[in-house]
């Protein structure tokens, strides 16, 4: 049974407050990186020696980074991902999103150069080692979900939370909303559906026809929306105790969590004031 709540436009869960962090030049954890992070070899050597996959990258970003690090034509790794036999859970239906584990991967090992197949396999194998053993698998079971669902929640946590402390609270908001039959209403799922990275969401965005539209669809998205790191996964299996249903980052380092809608509205108003003072250009308000 759905819970009576204010309109979707007014209770939007948002991480748009992090726009202020970016505007002031602060480093935002989990922000998508546009280019691969590569570790270079000896001075004068042009080829990278390792590929670093940051926490929160989507599969498309990983594919692009592999192509660049191996000097392959764009799209090569994406095609390889559809053909290589990756050890993914059945629920994934062949989609490696969430299982391209963030870590540093060598581009040459035992004299053999890496390939898209070998790198993707290494990422998925690493994810399986991290996710399928204790404490992750046991933690998922304690929360009456499977590991794939835990990774899906972790991917939302990774996209929405800027700090480890906030991760536990965001995970609790997800659980609280699921338990109450409320839509998650996470902007990060819309960004995934629209293949973008933005902190602004319009009313039209919230009406798109997509299984990743957590404003219109109940429950979790069908797959993870990025590749989360260990902190986000641990938050997903052991969320911080609390009754929160809403959150907004009103200023850098100050994310407000509450179960009270009126209090959330006051927090949003404060966020809007801070955003206007931080940016000379008009922007959409958080809701």
Provide an overview of this structure:
There is one protein chain. The protein has helices at 18-23, 59-69, 76-83, 116-132, 136-142, 147-160, 164-179, 187-193, 230-237, 261-278, and strands spanning 37-40, 48-52, 104-106, 108-109, 112-113, 246-251, 254-258. It is globular. Helix 7 (164-179) runs parallel beside helix 9 (230-237). It has ten helices and seven strands. The chain is mainly alpha-helical and 287 residues long. The strands form three sheets. Strands 1-2-3 form a three-stranded antiparallel beta sheet, with helices on one face. It has a two-stranded antiparallel sheet with strand order 4-5. Residues 1-35 and 281-287 have low confidence and may be disordered. It has two domains: 18-28 and 148-278, no CATH class; 37-132, no CATH class.
- Residue fraction in strands: 5-15%
Largest beta sheet, briefly? 3 strands, antiparallel
Catalogue the unreliable spans: 1-35, 281-287
- Counted beta strands: 7
Instruction: State the domain count.
Output: 2
Gyration radius, rounded: 19 Å
Tally of helical segments: 10
Give, in order, the helices and strands: HEEHHEEEHHHHHHEEH
Mean pLDDT: 84
Widest sheet: strand order? 1-2-3
């Amino acid at each position: 049974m759905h819970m009576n709540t204010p309109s979707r436009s007014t209770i939007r869960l948002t991480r748009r407050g992090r726009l202020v962090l970016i505007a002031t030049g602060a480093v935002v954890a989990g922000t998508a990186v546009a280019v691969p992070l590569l570790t270079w070899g000896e001075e004068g050597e042009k080829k990278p020696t390792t590929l670093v996959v940051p926490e929160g990258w989507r599969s498309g970003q990983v594919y692009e980074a592999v192509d660049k690090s191996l000097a392959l034509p764009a799209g090569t790794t994406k095609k390889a991902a559809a053909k290589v036999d990756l050890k993914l859970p059945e629920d994934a239906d062949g989609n490696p999103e969430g299982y391209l584990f963030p870590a540093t991967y060598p581009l040459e090992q035992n004299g053999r150069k890496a390939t898209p197949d070998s790198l993707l396999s290494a990422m998925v194998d690493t994810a399986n080692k991290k996710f399928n053993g204790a404490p992750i698998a046991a933690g998922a079971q304690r929360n009456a979900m499977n590991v794939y669902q835990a990774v899906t929640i972790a991917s939302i946590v990774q996209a929405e939370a800027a700090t480890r402390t906030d991760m536990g609270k965001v995970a609790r908001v997800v659980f609280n909303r699921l338990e109450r039959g409320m839509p998650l209403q996470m902007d990060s799922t819309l960004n995934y559906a629209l293949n973008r990275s933005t902190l602004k969401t319009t009313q039209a965005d919230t009406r798109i026809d997509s299984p990743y539209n957590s404003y219109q669809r109940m429950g979790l998205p069908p797959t993870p929306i990025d590749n989360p790191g260990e902190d986000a996964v641990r938050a997903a299996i052991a969320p911080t105790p609390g009754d929160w249903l809403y959150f907004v980052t009103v200023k850098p380092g100050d994310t407000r969590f509450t179960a009270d809608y009126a209090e959330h509205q006051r927090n949003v108003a404060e966020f809007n004031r801070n955003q206007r003072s931080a940016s000379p250009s008009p922007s959409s308000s958080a809701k």
